[in-house]
Amino acid sequence: MPRRSSQNNQENINEQAVNPAQETAAQAADHAQETGNAQPVNETQAVNGTAANTEQMPVFTAEISTLRPESGVLALADVKVGELMTIRNVKIREDDYGLVVTMPRTRLPYSEQYKDSIFFADKAVKEKFDQTVEKAYHDFLHLQNMTEENAEDMEQSGEMEDNQEEASGMSMGM
């Protein structure tokens, strides 16, 4: 009989021990309230019961829409953020330190000031966004250069064929 009692006690201890990875958002909120360490819980955490560190980085897809639309701007890009939204008119500029990605801006009412329409709270996400836009710009320029080189090669090969035809036509006639 004593063995049965110790087994029940062990089961009670196991039920009380909660693995932090399995703790739900509600349990975490209750624990935080009890200990005074309240932290905000986002919607994903509340629904899935996951930790904040497991959130994934959004997928960015950039496409260059216009080259040199205005003075000081190298290009405009449209950036798709996963399946969520598209940010239009992202400007690519060049300064002393290299390329700079500038978010679309909105003019503030009753003043001459402008403010970014999009703000990234996480610096790592902003850096990934900028890298995606810069890569799209470099790829676009590379593709454009390749297209121009192919056009020049075709023109040169066409001129060479014309010259060969003229030369062979002259020698046959003589």
Secondary structure topology:
Elements: H1 2-16, H2 25-35, H3 43-48, E1 60-67, E2 75-81, E3 85-95, E4 98-102, E5 105-107, E6 114-116, H4 123-173
Antiparallel strand pairs: 1-2, 2-3, 3-4, 5-6
Describe the structure.
The chain is an alpha+beta fold and 174 residues long. It folds into 2 domains: 2-54, no CATH class; 60-152, Arylsulfatase, C-terminal domain (2-Layer Sandwich). It is 48% helix and 21% strand. The chain has helices spanning 2-16, 25-35, 43-48, 123-173, and strands spanning 60-67, 75-81, 85-95, 98-102, 105-107, 114-116. The strands form 2 sheets. Strands 1-2-3-4 form a 4-stranded antiparallel β-sheet, covered by helices on one side. A two-stranded antiparallel sheet has the order 5-6. Residues 9-25 and 43-54 have low confidence and may be disordered.
Please sum up the structure shown.
The protein has 174 residues and is α+β, with helices and mostly antiparallel strands. The chain has helices at residues 2-16, 25-35, 43-48, 123-173; strands spanning 60-67, 75-81, 85-95, 98-102, 105-107, 114-116.
